[in-house]
Design goal:
The protein has 22 helices and 18 strands. By secondary structure, the chain is α/β, with parallel strands linked by helices.
Length: about 500
C-alpha cells in the first residue's frame, strides 16, 4: 500500500514542499530511502523504526520504500522523521488516510517517540499558509514561533503516540494560540548618557542609525569606540512585525531558536579570529553567516584591521547589494544581508600614533601597512568616518551626563518615519537609495549645488563616494526636517568622508 504525507524542507530561508511517499509490500525485510537524501535522512530509518515500536505499534517484516519528492532536490536534516513515521503507519493501516489530508507534518523523532524541534519553523509555516494547508503539525518547542503566522492552524505535537491517538480518533487537534504582536522589545546595550564627551562621534552614530549608514570609528585605545558601537542598538527604532518575521526566518534557519519572534534588532560582534565562512555564510550545509544574522541590525567589527583580508573583502558585495549568495557544488542559496556595518580600529598597531602623550613605537612602514589592511574599495563602502580622541579628565569627572538613548532614539524614529513615507517601505532607508532615487530625492539648493561641485572636483571623489555623500546628506537634512539639501548638510556629510584620506583609502 502507498501512503502520502506532505512535509516541508528549507532552501535557504524559503520553505519547499516535500511529499513523503511510503510504499510497503511483502517480501524480504528491507528499508530504502530515495530522493537525494543526505546522511541524516538515511539514518532516519533507525530512529523511525525505534520510535514506532516504542510508541506501541508492531512493525511486521516487509519491504519499505520511502521516496522524498521532488527527487531532484537534495533533502537534509532530521525533520522528515515524523512524516515518514506517519506514512509507514498509514501504509500499514494503523492511521486513516483522511487524517493526513490537507495537513503538513515536520519533526525529528527520538528513539522513544518524542518529537524534537527543527530549524526553520517560521519559514515552513509561511509556506504552509501560502500553499493552502489547513494545519501545520510540528514539535511543541517550535509551535510559538510558527503561531505568529495568521490564517494557519498550528498544532504542537509532543510525541508520536499522542499524535497518532489524536489522528486516529479524528478528534479536533488542539491548536497553539496566536500571540498578538505588541511591538519590538526595548533595545539592550550601553545607554548614550554613559558616554562622556565624544560629541562628534555620537552625532555621527545618530546619523548612521537614522539612515542605516555604515560607520568607521578610529582612535586610540580607551577612547570609547567599542562603548559607542555597543550603544548603537539603544538608538535604533524597534522592529516592525514584518521586519521581525524576516529576521526570525533567518535566525530559525540558522538554528538560533527563540520562543516566538525575534523582537529586538540583531547586534553581532564576531571576534577577529572568526573565519570568513562563519561571517559571510556557507559551510557543508550553506548556513546563514553573521552578516545574515545581523540583517536589519548591526554588525560590529572591533579591531577591524585584525580580521583576515579574505573576510573583509568578502563583505564588499553584500554591503553593496544587501544579499549574499553562497554557491556550492549542489547549488546556490541567497540570504538577506542588509546590515549596518560599524567598524573600530586604532591609528597604528600600538595605538598611540597622533595621541597628545605620544610614545608611538611603530615605524612609518608598520603604520602604513596596518592602515592598508582596509582596502580602498572596502573604505569606499563606508559612509561615515569619525576620528575619536582620548577622553579628557573633565569629560569623565566634571561634565554632566550626556543625552540619554531614549531622546536620540525619538529623533531617529522620526527620521525613519520620513523615509517610510518617502519609499513606501518600512525596511528601506536612505543608505539603500539607488541612483534614480538619489537624483529624485537629493535635490540641492542653488548655493549648495555650487559648493558641492567645487568640493567634488577638489576631493576627486569616486562615483560611489558621491552617492554615499548624497545619501548621508539626505539623512542629515531629514533630521533637520528640511526638504532640500542645504550647504550645511553637504558640508557635514563631506566632513565624514574626509577621514578616509587619513586612512589611506
Amino acid at each position: 500500500m502507498i501512503a502520502k504525507v506532505e512535509s516541508c524542507g528549507l532552501s535557504g530561508i524559503e520553505g519547499r514542499i516535500i511529499t513523503v511517499e511510503v510504499d510497503i509490500t511483502g517480501g524480504l525485510p528491507a528499508y530504502d530511502t530515495v530522493g537525494l537524501p543526505d546522511k541524516s535522512v538515511v539514518e532516519s530509518r533507525e530512529r523511525v523504526r525505534a520510535a514506532i515500536r516504542n510508541s506501541g505499534f508492531v512493525l511486521p517484516p516487509c519491504r519499505t520504500v520511502v521516496n522524498l519528492a521532488p527527487a531532484d532536490l537534495k533533502k537534509e536534516g532530521a525533520l522528515y522523521d515524523l512524516p515518514i513515521a506517519l506514512g509507514i503507519l498509514c501504509a500499514l493501516g494503523e492511521l486513516p488516510e483522511k487524517a493526513l489530508e490537507g495537513r503538513m507534518f515536520v519533526g525529528e523523532l527520538a528513539l522513544g517517540g518524542e518529537i524534537r524541534p527543527v530549524r526553520g519553523a517560521l519559514s515552513m509555516a509561511l509556506t504552509a499558509r501560502k500553499q493552502g494547508f489547513s494545519a501545520l503539525i510540528l514539535p511543541e518547542e517550535n509551535a510559538e514561533e510558527a503561531a505568529c503566522v495568521n490564517g494557519l492552524a498550528v498544532v504542537p505535537a509532543g510525541s508520536l503516540k499522542e499524535l497518532c491517538q489524536a489522528l486516529e480518533s479524528e478528534a479536533e487537534l488542539p491548536c497553539q494560540p496566536q500571540q498578538p504582536w505588541k511591538g519590538g522589545r526595548e533595545p539592550e546595550g550601553t545607554d548614550f548618557s554613559a558616554i562622556r564627551g565624544q560629541y562628534a562621534a555620537k552625532r555621527a552614530a545618530e546619523i548612521a542609525a537614522a539612515g542605516g549608514h555604515n560607520l568607521l570609528l578610529f582612535g586610540p585605545p580607551g577612547g570609547g569606540k567599542t562603548m559607542l558601537a555597543r550603544a548603537m542598538p539603544t538608538i535604533l527604532p524597534a522592529l516592525t512585525f514584518e521586519e521581525a518575521l524576516e529576521v526570525t526566518c533567518i535566525h530559525s534557519a540558522a538554528g538560533q531558536r527563540e520562543r516566538g519572534l525575534v523582537k529586538s534588532r540583531p547586534f553581532l560582534a564576531p571576534h577577529h579570529s572568526a573565519s570568513a565562512i562563519s561571517i559571510v555564510g556557507g559551510g557543508a550545509h550553506a548556513r546563514p553567516g553573521m552578516i545574515s544574522m545581523a540583517h536589519l541590525g548591526v554588525l560590529f567589527l572591533d579591531e577591524m584591521p585584525e580580521f583576515s583580508r579574505e573576510t573583509l573583502e568578502a563583505l564588499r558585495q553584500p554591503l553593496e547589494d544587501g544579499v549574499i549568495t553562497v554557491s556550492r557544488a549542489n547549488g546556490s542559496l541567497t540570504y538577506p544581508a542588509r546590515f549596518m556595518l560599524v567598524g573600530a580600529m586604532n591609528p597604528c598597531p600600538c595605538g598611540k600614533d597622533g595621541t597628545p602623550e605620544g610614545g608611538c613605537t611603530c615605524t612609518a612602514v608598520q603604520i602604513a601597512r596596518y592602515r592598508r589592511r582596509l582596502s580602498g574599495p572596502l573604505l569606499d563602502r563606508m559612509d561615515l568616518f569619525v576620528q575619536m580622541q582620548a577622553v579628557r579628565y573633565d569629560d569623565l569627572h566634571q561634565k554632566p551626563a550626556g543625552e540619554p538613548s531614549e531622546a536620540v532614539r525619538r529623533r531617529v524614529e522620526a527620521c525613519r518615519a520620513v523615509q517610510r513615507e518617502r519609499f513606501s517601505s518600512g525596511a528601506k532607508v536612505n543608505a539603500h537609495m539607488d541612483q534614480k532615487e538619489i537624483e529624485r530625492f537629493c535635490v540641492m539648493t542653488p548655493a549648495a549645488r555650487t559648493l558641492y561641485r567645487l568640493e567634488f572636483d577638489r576631493r576627486g571623489m569616486s562615483g560611489r563616494g558621491n552617492a554615499r555623500v548624497l545619501r548621508v546628506a539626505r539623512t542629515i537634512a531629514d533630521l533637520a526636517q528640511s526638504r532640500l539639501l542645504e550647504e550645511e548638510h553637504l558640508l557635514e556629510a563631506m566632513q565624514y568622508r574626509s577621514a578616509d584620506q587619513w586612512l589611506g583609502g
